[in-house]
Design goal:
binds D-malate; seven-stranded mixed sheet; alpha/beta; two-stranded antiparallel ribbon; Rossmann fold; single chain
Length: 215
């Protein structure tokens, strides 16, 4: 099967890649890369997780030493809270524009590291933007968390047992925070560090298959 990839980056607010759905009807995926990544990074992961989905993959606009990110941080794990809010809103606006442009249903975010953290911030601040999320190595993006209504969101958090960047209690706090706002949250700790492994792929794929079965 040939899938055309459009690099329709000139008029929407984020440089991005978009791949149309080979078989429409499956929830699109919003792919959010980690620090130093770009809009190309997670396309293969997205296609592996949901072969029939449209893929929307923006590039973070914040540069840290030349490395793209989705929001500013003051130090490792210490986030500029005002920038997190501003950038999460900006990204949610982009998702709305892209949905109108490409005719998409609300997407499921698949975010890694910094991309997972901005996805978590979007869930907390703009819950209407996402149908759910796979958060790979996520931590709490906003503290205190705003109260929101995440009644329709399903969230999978995949944490690494040996992750040197995300403390286990921080990932658990994020799971509690999203649950308190009404999301159906599953958190799984895989035998890994901060990087992704085959366990992540297997867990995320199984969760994605179950999500499709529930719709
Ligand atoms: C972040 O800055 O969002 C997290 O520390 C993860 C990272 O990007 O290193």
């Amino acid at each position: 099967m040939t899938i055309s990839t459009l690099n329709a980056n000139s008029t929407l607010a984020f440089t991005h890649r978009f791949e149309p759905a080979p078989h429409p009807g499956v929830a699109p995926l919003l792919l959010l890369h980690g620090t130093g990544g770009d809009e190309n990074d997670l396309l293969p992961l997205g296609r592996a997780l949901s072969p029939d989905a449209a893929l929307l993959s923006p590039r973070g606009k914040v540069l840290e030493g030349g490395m793209p990110r989705f929001f500013r941080r003051l130090a490792e794990g210490v986030f500029d809270q005002e920038d997190v809010k501003r950038r999460a809103n900006e990204l949610a606006d982009f998702v709305a524009e892209a949905r109108a442009r490409y005719g998409l249903a609300p997407p499921v975010a698949v975010g890694f590291s910094n991309g997972a953290n901005i996805a978590a911030a979007m869930l907390l601040l703009r819950p209407e933007a996402l149908a759910g999320a796979v958060l790979l190595r996520a931590m709490v993006p906003l503290d205190p968390a705003p109260a929101g209504d995440l009644a329709v969101a399903r969230v999978l958090i995949l944490s690494g047992a040996m992750d040197p960047i995300v403390p286990a209690d921080n990932a658990a706090a994020l799971a509690r925070m999203l649950s308190a706002n009404g999301a159906a949250v599953e958190q799984v700790t895989v035998p890994a560090g901060h990087g992704l492994t085959q366990s992540d792929l297997a867990q995320a794929r199984a969760w994605m298959n179950a999500l499709r079965g529930n719709r």
